[in-house]
UniProtKB/TrEMBL annotation:
The keyword Nucleotide-binding does not apply. GO terms for molecular function: ATP binding; DNA binding; DNA topoisomerase type II (double strand cut, ATP-hydrolyzing) activity. SUPFAM superfamilies: GyrA/ParC C-terminal domain-like (SSF101904), Type II DNA topoisomerase (SSF56719). The lineage of its organism: Bacteria, Pseudomonadati, Planctomycetota, Planctomycetia, Gemmatales. Belongs to the type II topoisomerase GyrA/ParC subunit family. This is DNA topoisomerase (ATP-hydrolyzing). One of its GO terms (cellular component) is cytoplasm. It catalyses: ATP-dependent breakage, passage and rejoining of double-stranded DNA. The active site is at 130 (o-(5'-phospho-dna)-tyrosine intermediate).
Length: 888
């Protein structure tokens, strides 16, 4: 009673049903997804059309716009399609119509357009009020037999018209024109193929249903794009045909023309779904950004009138390698693209990934059903017409009686009843129509003494005109009946044998191949399309520098001019409060093994280092390597490859060394790997590449050096601390390590710009105790020594690792401490950089050869408060000298 509303009040509202939002969203989204999949995005495997394209073709067929008719305004076609079948925006309908006219979008166009329907340059089509269209001959073949009950029809969106679920299509449109679309959670990407090749494959499959994929590929070697191009490699094609998914690399067709000193790259075809103007824009942007430096000009010489819809001419600079530039264009522009193969289509209304053979089989199944239904329809029509003719034959055999009944009957209904009650004897019928026709009639109606008309036959006789009873007209009826009897027998024979139906399909395919087949446009190359980045980068030496604050850059070798000993150099571009710590020369194709102060190793390609100007500070190394906040690069080793019996020998500031096979460093991770396990307070100061038989020299900050064989250090894993290489004093530390060259010199540079070079000397060992503790720490000055002592002071004798070493150079207030060493020859050149960024390049031959126990000579003049920071070597035969004053 409490819920009862008061008298005259409003009834209480009924409670709303409770819905689970999760289930409601799931059901609604699934309904939407299936609608997109079935009614919008995916083609039907049978006719290869999406609903929008199918409806446009049906609407044009309804308008009578066949291949032989005149064209009609596209606005009328769009309106008819929208009115009858596709209740969506006119823009989307017209876009679909336009695509079916473009011979660069479809391998075989389905609509013939008159007017501006766009171009391969990327220009849009004119509005639909300006253009006209009609069906092509190929589209007419797809629509043939549409009205012969070959496919099912359903109500359109408002129930006023009927539309076909699929076209009867004798054309394998899905394969020859392909399709692409994105549905909900799935996508299709079916490339176009050559009609003649597809027809040959279908004919072969009809003859041998057990064909293998390899046999099919012999008929269909791969896609055939309307814009031509070159497919690189066949594996992607095989994967796509075998599994329904694959990837192929498509390149534009180009030509390299060299005439005298002029070199050109001519682009003659663009990859599928790319436009000429956009491709030119990409190339222009590369040139503007200096990513491709050897292009001097780009011209568009395309002319559809001259049969060259695509002709982009690229002029190269003098001396440029055209193959290198072409590889760069392949890498950085749509001149080369990856085309996916996703053979996804609707099969029985459901999306399904198909193989090539399954796609062909589905088309054959469709054609078998279409031919069977067409034959059944024609058989029904033939029997219906034959039944009428049989009544007319009965009437002709008793023409006088028929006329009497018609004249005496009060109306048409009575006439039909009287005609149905009229009996005609077999003998009379035979005399009238002939024994052959009678025999055929008896085969249809059965042998009887007399025959009567059915209601349908009587109605047809009543509708006969008097002129049709003339003798010539009677002969036409006899002839038509005989032809119908033969046709009926043929239809029944065809329906009784699937082999005959397959023969009909083969005849249709042969007809299509002969009438519409053409030559393949796309070339298939056995060469792989993978372009290694190294193929895009010229092999040349670069100067690489890394500053103390972590800025890295590379510059061409010719940036730094050759100067004479004692010059001040040129500015290297560091910031005021920064200085260069690492400075070396490496090939653009070299790997850089970057060791940090924490013993970590990072892997980097030289060409991945940003190229900058001489005065630029470079880019933060944090943008190039994944360094931790407290990490700094302490050693960089250029390595061309990781093969061979090589090891890396690492040295720490406390004097330890560790030898590890080079191969152990060939697979670094993104965050780096362990290069050496350091003790607390120790840092990595140097790493060098050694091979069996090499000897190394370690040099300390206070001018001590030790030479020992690399075999003294046994190979260890990456995650180890190593063994002692030199026994240092408390105030000393290791600053450098090099591989000894018996025919070369050890170059030692001090921080105040002084240095010297001393011969390594032959590989002679001095007998030392096992612990290697006894060593010569000081030796007489060269000028005061005897002849034997002088020879000893001019070389570095071999010792066991762990000793104190010998004097390398006298460190004094004039010289300063040692900042680095290098193994050099007379042909080398030296590049020095100071903490303030000044750079000097001199010939090694200009550095005086003196003994170990000396102070050396001035190598570079440094400003007050400045000091030498690093050094690097250059082989003289790899550079071009410039004659410049020593004071430059």
């Amino acid at each position: 009673m409490a819920d009862t509303p008061p008298s005259g009040g409003t009834p209480a509202p009924l409670p709303m049903p409770t819905l689970e939002i999760e289930s409601e969203l799931r059901d609604s989204y699934l309904a939407y997804a299936m609608s997109v999949i079935v009614s919008r995005a995916l083609p039907d495997v049978r006719d290869g059309l999406k609903p929008s394209h199918r409806r446009i073709l049906v609407a044009m067929n309804d308008l009578g716009l066949g291949p032989s008719s005149s064209t009609s305004k596209c606005a009328a076609i769009v309106g008819e399609t929208m009115k009858r079948y596709h209740p969506h925006g006119d823009a989307s309908i017209y876009d679909s119509l336009v695509r079916m006219t473009q011979n660069w979008a479809l391998r075989y166009t389905l609509v013939h357009g008159q007017g501006n329907f766009g171009s391969i340059a990327g220009l849009p089509a004119a509005a639909h009020r300006y253009t006209e269209a009609r069906l092509t001959n190929l589209a007419a073949e797809m629509l043939e037999d549409l009205n012969n009950d070959t496919v099912d029809f359903i109500d359109n969106y408002d129930g006023k018209y009927k539309e076909p679920l699929v076209l009867p299509s004798k054309v394998p449109n899905l394969l020859i024109n392909g399709s692409d679309g994105i549905a909900v959670g799935m996508a299709t990407e079916i490339p176009p193929h050559n009609l003649g090749e597809v027809c040959d494959a279908l004919i072969a499959l009809l003859e041998n249903p057990n064909m293998s994929l390899g046999e099919l590929i012999s008929h269909i070697p791969g896609p055939d794009f309307p814009t031509g191009g070159i497919i690189c490699g066949r594996q992607g094609i095989i994967d796509g045909y075998k599994t329904g998914r694959g990837k192929i690399t498509l390149r534009a067709r180009t030509e390299i023309v060299e005439e005298g000193k002029t070199t050109q790259i001519i682009i003659k075809e663009v990859p599928f779904q790319q436009t000429r103007n956009r491709l030119a824009e990409y190339i222009g942007e590369l040139v503007k950004d200096e990513r491709v430096k050897d292009i001097s000009a780009l011209r568009d010489e395309s002319s559809a009138r001259n049969g060259e819809p695509v002709r982009l001419v690229i002029d190269l600079k003098r001396g440029a390698d055209p193959h290198l530039v072409l590889n760069q264009l392949y890498q950085f522009t749509p001149l080369q693209k990856t085309v996916s193969i996703i053979l996804l289509a609707l099969v029985d209304g459901r999306p399904r990934i198909l193989t090539l053979k399954e796609m062909l089989e589905e088309f054959i199944k469709h054609r078998i059903q279409v031919i069977r239904r067409r034959t059944e329809y024609k058989l029904r029509e033939a029997k219906r017409r034959g039944h009428i003719l049989e009544g007319q034959l009965i009437a002709i055999s008793s023409l006088d009686e028929v006329i009497r009944i018609c004249r005496s009957s009060p109306n048409r209904s009575e006439t039909k009843i009287s005609l149905q009650n009229m009996e005609v004897s077999a003998s009379v019928l035979g005399r009238a129509i002939g024994e052959k026709a009678l025999t055929a009639l008896q085969a249809e109606l059965g042998v009887a003494e007399s025959y009567r008309m059915t209601e349908a036959q009587a109605d047809a006789v009543v509708r006969l005109q008097l002129g049709q009873l003339a003798a010539l007209e009677r002969d036409e009826i006899y002839k038509e009946y005989a032809q119908l009897r033969e046709a009926i027998v043929g239809y029944e024979t065809l329906l009784a044998s699937e082999a005959l139906i397959r023969e009909v399909i083969k005849e249709d395919l042969t007809y299509l191949r002969n009438k519409f087949g053409d030559n393949r446009l796309t070339e298939i190359s056995d060469e792989g399309a993978y372009v290694d980045m190294e193929d895009l980068i010229p092999v040349e030496d670069q100067v690489v520098s890394i500053s103390h604050k972590g800025y890295i850059k590379r510059l061409p070798m010719d940036t730094y001019r050759v100067q004479h000993r004692g010059g001040k150099g040129v500015s290297g571009g560091t910031k005021d409060d920064d200085f260069v710590e690492h400075f070396f020369v490496a090939s653009t194709h070299a790997y850089l093994l970057c060791f940090t102060n924490r013993g970590q190793l990072y892997w980097l390609k030289v060409y991945n280092i940003p190229e900058a100007s001489r005065t630029s500070a470079g880019r933060s190394i944090a943008n190039v390597l994944s360094l931790k906040p407290d990490e700094m690069i302490t050693s960089v080793i250029p390595v061309r490859d990781f093969e061979g019996n090589f090891c890396l020998l690492a040295a720490t500031r406390q004097g330890k060394v560790k030898k590890t096979p080079l191969e152990d460093y060939s697979r670094p991770k993104q965050g780096g790997i362990i290069g050496i396990n350091l003790n607390e307070g120790d840092t990595l100061i140097g790493v060098c590449l050694v091979k069996p038989g090499d000897e190394v020299v370690l040099s300390s900050r206070n001018g001590m050096a030790i030479r020992f064989s690399e075999s003294d250090a046994r190979p260890m894993g990456r995650n180890t601390a190593g063994v002692w290489g030199i026994n240092l004093k408390d105030d000393d530390e290791l600053v450098g390590m090099v591989v000894a060259d018996p025919e070369g010199f050890l170059l030692t540079i001090c921080e105040n710009g002084y240095g010297k070079r001393t011969p390594f000397g032959p590989n002679t060992a001095d007998e030392l105790p096992e612990n290697g503790e006894e060593a010569v720490a000081e030796e007489p000055v060269e000028e005061e020594s005897a002849e034997g002592e002088e020879r000893s002071a001019m070389r570095y004798r071999k010792q066991r690792r762990g000793g104190k070493g010998v004097r390398d150079i006298r460190t004094s207030e004039r010289n300063g401490k040692v900042i680095g060493i290098a193994a050099v020859k007379d042909t080398h050149e030296l590049i020095l950089m100071t903490m303030q960024g000044m750079v000097n390049r001199i010939k090694i031959s200009e550095v005086r050869v003196v003994g170990r126990n000396t102070q050396g000579v001035r190598v570079m003049s440094v400003n007050d408060g400045d000091k030498i920071a690093s050094l690097a070597l250059v082989a003289a035969e790899e550079v071009v000298e410039e004659k410049v004053p020593a004071t430059t």
